[in-house]
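Re: the 340-residue chain
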Amino acid sequence: MSPAESQSSPLAAEWRDARLLYPLYVALAQEFVLDLPPCNDLEAPADIPDQDTMTRSREWFALMDGRIQVHQLRQFLQTTPLATEEVVQGLLTRHLNKPNRNDPDRDKIDFLLVQFFSLRTPSRLEDSDVDLAYVAQVLEPVLGDVEVTEPAWLRPHNGILSAAQACTRLSELLEGGILDQGRKLKVGAAQNYFLPAAMVAFARFSFLMRRVFFRLMHDDLNAILDGLRDLEHRGLETVDCRRAQFSRQEPIVRLRMICQSWKVMFHAEYSSGQPLKMLVDLRAAVEEALSSSGGTGKPARAQAAAAAFNVAPAGAPEFQVEAPTPSWDPESGHGSGGGK
C-alpha cells in the first residue's frame, strides 16, 4: 500500500477522528475526575497506526463513553472552546455509528443533534423557519439525505411543543408536565428513535423546546429582579423565601446574586429538577412579598430588569453559556448536581 493509499484508508480516517476527539475526551476526564488513565497511543500518536494501536485506541474510547454521563457531556460541550462544529460532528458520528446503542447513547445523540444544529444555524433564526425540511438539510452531514415525512407515531410531539409555546410562566411548563411528556415520547420510541426521520423530528422538537425554556427562564429571572428592586424602593431589605427553600429573612442582596448565578446555570441545561423549581418558587415568594407590602404582586419594569441583569438579546447565540455549572436538560428531564 502506497503512503497516499494509507492516508486515505478507512483505518487512517478512523485514526484522524480519534486524534480529533482525544483532547475533548481528556478534558472531560479532567473536568469530572473520571478514573481512567490517558491513552498512551494517542498521547504521542503515529501518523499511520498499526492494527494493535487502533485496537487499544478503540478500547480506550469505549471505556470513556461508558463513564461519561449525558449530563456531563451536555454541560461540558456548552462551556468549552474545544466543542467546535468539527468536533461535535465527529462526536455525533461516533455515537451514531455504534452497532448497539442503549438509552444513554440515545440521550447523548439527542443532545448532540441539537448542539450540531445550533452550531450550523444563524442565531436570529425564526421559529417558523425551523421546519422538518430545514432541520434535515442542516443535519445532512451526519444523517445523510433524509426523507422528511413525519412518522404518524411522532405527531403527538407537535401538541407537546404547542402547549410549551403557549406557556407564559416557567411554572406552567413544569406543573403541566410538558417536559415529562416529551421525555416519555422519546423513551417510548425505543429503537425507532434512531430512524433518520425520527431523529430529524426530535432534533427540531428539542431545539424549539430549549427556546421556550430560555424565554420563560428569562421572564422569571427578570420578574424576580424587578420585584426585588421594587421591594428595595419600599424600604425592605429581606424577603420570606421559605417556600423556595431559603430563609425567612433572606437578604435581597443575596437573592440578587443567586439570580445572577442562576442565569449562567440555566443557560447550560434545564429540566424539571429541584433548582428549577426553586426558581419558580422564588418568583412566587417575591410576588407574595410585593402584594403584602402594598403592591400588585406583579413586578412592572421587566425591561429595566433585563437591562440591569444583562439578559442576552434575541440575536445572541442560542446555547452560549458563561461558565461551567450544574446542569438541567429539557429534553431528558434529567439533571446533575442539585437538579437530580
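The radius of gyration is 23 Å.
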